[in-house]
Every structure is written in structure tokens, then in C-alpha cells.
Amino acid sequence: MKKSIIAVASAMLLAGCGFTGGTATNNGSDLGNVLGSILGAVTQGDAVTNILYDVIGATKLSKEDVVGTWSYRGPGVAFTSENLLAKAGGEVAAAKARQDLEKPYQSIGIKSTNTYFTFNADNTFSGKVDGQPISGTYSYNPDNSEVKLQTLLLSTTGYLTRNAKGISLLFESKKLLTALQVVGAMSGNSTLSTVGELSKNYDGIRMGFDLTK
Questions:
Q1: Alpha helix positions (H), 62-152
Q2: Sign of the four-CA dihedral 117, 176, 198, 163
């Protein structure tokens, strides 16, 4: 499986760089650098498996799948379409986005011991983000993976999608920033602008939380 994924990733990269088996349109050293980056990314741990899940809705979640308590495992990232993932270096971009989210999440204080979500069968949810309690109602549409969250302070739409070790709760970057700003205001943390700034570099990617039971 790993070899086939590497082969597909390499083929997508070479095609994107204009390489068709003869000469490349890009400088050879540039091609080698980019190829090295993508091969490095897809051969590291979760990245191999992430390729199979990095498009929202690629593997469907039913309403029943969503129910339960899900704890934060790390930054979550997924593409909005297969076309975006298929761009040369797509998985590398996702891996880098996850890495770039780690520092601001850590500065906010988000970790597995203080961030979780519980989705109940009666369409209520509760949880904590950075130890700050949240609760309200939710609706989930398995056809397009959209989840709508409603609390006293916040109403937002995101996505629930499957990942290699659980599910991901993802948002457009501005909505993610708004949600985190609400949490930051409650906890007195005002260092969240980084999330909004870095997300400008990842058009077509949704960001949020990887969760596991």
C-alpha cells in the first residue's frame, strides 16, 4: 500500500511539474527538491494514511458514527475537493498546515486533556476547548459532511469527516478564528491572530481538530 501511494504521489507531482517521461519544464534541481519533499512527507507515519482521508467526505460518516466523546489529538486539516488534493504537493501542503497550526494551538493551551467534544444522539453537544466549557445543539448532514453548531455565544457551520484514527472537526479559517477568539476571550488569551494569518496561505483547505475516542 505504501509503495502504491508513493507511486501515485510521485506521478501527480511529475505531471504537475510538466514532466511526462522526457524533459521537465522546471529546473531539474527544483523538481528534485519538490519530489524529495513529497516523498518525505508521504513516508512519515500518519501522512501515508492521511492521503486516503484528506478530502472532506471522501469516506462518509453516518449520524451514528458521530455520536460519542471525542478528544483532541492534534491539528486537523482536509481539502475541500479531490482536485485540490491532486495538485502537486497537495499532501505536503496539508502536512505543513498541520505543523503550522501546532504552535498557535499550543500557545492557546489546547491539548488532549482539556479539549474534547461530546455529540449526543438527541442532537445536543457539550465539551471543552482549552478547558472552557461549551454546549449547545448540533445538526449533521452526512451527504455533504456539514455540521452546524449552535451555542449561546456562537453559531457556526463546519465539517465532520473521517480521519485515520477518528474524526476531524473542521472549519473555514475565518470561522475557526472566530470560534477560537470566543474561547480566548473567555480565558483571557489574545494571541489568536496567528491562526488567521497562516490560514491565508492555504486556500481550499479546512482547518480544525483531529479527534479520537
A1: 63-66, 82-86, 90-108
A2: positive
> What are the cell numbers at 185?
476571550
Q: Three cell numbers at 173?
A: 479559517
- What are the phi and psi torsion angles at 135 (to 5°)? -160, 160
CA–CA dist 61, 141 (Å, integer): 9
**The residue type at 179:** A
Nearest CA among 89, 70, 101 for reference residue 168: 70
Q: Per the confidence metrics, is the pTM higher than 0.90? A: no
Asked whether residue 104 carries a pLDDT value surpassing 50, the answer given is: yes
Q: Which residue reads 498541520 in cell numbers?
A: 98
Strands (E), the chain: 68-79, 116-119, 124-129, 132-141, 146-150, 155-163, 166-171, 205-212
Task: Give the list of residues 6+ apart from residue 201 with CB closer than 8 angstroms, or none.
Answer: none
Q: How confident is the model at residue 32 (pLDDT cuts 50, 70, 90)?
A: very low
Q: Which is more confident, 109 or 187?
A: 109
Confidence of residue 82 (pLDDT cuts 50, 70, 90): confident
